[in-house]
Design brief:
The protein is an alpha/beta fold. It is built from ten helices and 14 strands. It folds into two domains: 134 residues, Carbamate kinase, CATH 3.40.1160; 93 residues, Acetylglutamate kinase-like (Carbamate kinase, 3-Layer(aba) Sandwich). 44% of the residues are buried.
Length: 288
């Protein structure tokens, strides 16, 4: 009887998810993946399972990933000490080669392999492939940290059309053959905008946007661009949350329906966000 009850519960969960499955079938969802969810092996496995499940029910999933800790670890092996200015990694020529090697190589292919092991069909590309992410120097003192100048989205659309999960590392390029380290949140916002994505999910190491940064119970579940701008003026949005909110606003201005900042440390948070009415984190919309 206990087993039958368990199966009934499973069936109930699936039927409750049906309206959400219907809503997102055939729609594009971009996931920006990094932080703790990428470092913790158990969480990494769960994120890959979530993405494959969404892909199997007809969601067009695009994964944009970072890999900061892996870059720092590899730099250490090469005897290079990471330096940061205003939270951005100073990237000289040797460092950008390491970034390209780690992001477009090790991290990207590991994620592609994991998605395949979970039953998905994934293809890894970098922002240099098909000149997906064109960039220029953002700030001379940061070296080869790129400011995105153009997104050539065709390679991603081609992969989606062929039924793949595109896995994108955020390395950009320019017409002179230089490669650039691109901020993952910025790249994800621009790519989601170019795709006209239904939703951009930005996985972070915090619960979402909090009225009181030290009190998780003050989570703001939903807000508009106008409300976000007011919260910034009021000082509630501050520090490292400012660039994240700016990326959310940028994505919506570029055509994304809504953006969610969610806690990547919560198991199966992506499924909670997409397939339940509870959601996870803070959702930003263009208007009320």
């Amino acid at each position: 009887m206990e087993n039958n009850f368990s199966n009934m519960q499973r069936a109930e969960v699936l039927t409750q998810a049906l309206p959400y499955i219907k809503c997102y079938n055939g729609k594009i969802v971009v996931v920006k993946y990094g932080g703790n969810a990428m470092i913790n092996e158990t969480l990494k496995q769960q994120v890959m399972e979530d993405l494959v499940l969404l892909w199997l029910i007809g969601v067009k999933v695009v994964l944009v990933h970072g890999g900061g800790p892996e870059i720092s670890e590899t730099m250490d092996k090469f005897g290079k000490k990471p330096q940061f200015v205003n939270g951005l990694r100073v990237t000289d020529k040797e460092t950008v080669d390491i970034v390209q090697m780690v992001l477009a190589g090790k991290v990207n292919k590991t994620l592609v392999n994991l998605l395949g092991m979970k039953g998905g069909k994934a293809m890894g590309i970098s922002g240099m492939d098909g000149r997906l992410i064109e960039a220029e120097i953002k700030d001379e003192q940061l070296g080869f940290v790129g400011k995105v100048t153009n997104i050539n989205i065709d390679p991603v659309l081609d992969l989606l059309e062929k039924g793949y999960i595109p896995v994108i590392s955020t390395v950009g390029c320019d017409k002179d053959g230089n490669s650039y380290n691109i901020n993952g949140d910025t790249a994800a916002a621009q790519i989601a905008g170019a795709l006209g994505a239904e939703r951009l999910i930005m996985m972070t190491d915090i619960e979402g946007l909090l009225k009181d940064k030290d009190d998780p119970s003050t989570l703001i579940p939903e807000l508009t661009i106008a409300q976000a701008q007011q919260l910034r003026e009021d000082g509630i949005i501050s520090g490292g949350m400012i660039p994240k909110i700016e990326c959310c606003i940028d994505a919506i201005h570029h055509g994304v329906k809504n953006v969610v900042i969610m806690d990547g440390r919560v198991p199966h948070s992506i499924l909670m966000e997409i397939l339940t009415n509870e959601g996870a984190g803070t959702m930003m919309k263009g208007t009320d």
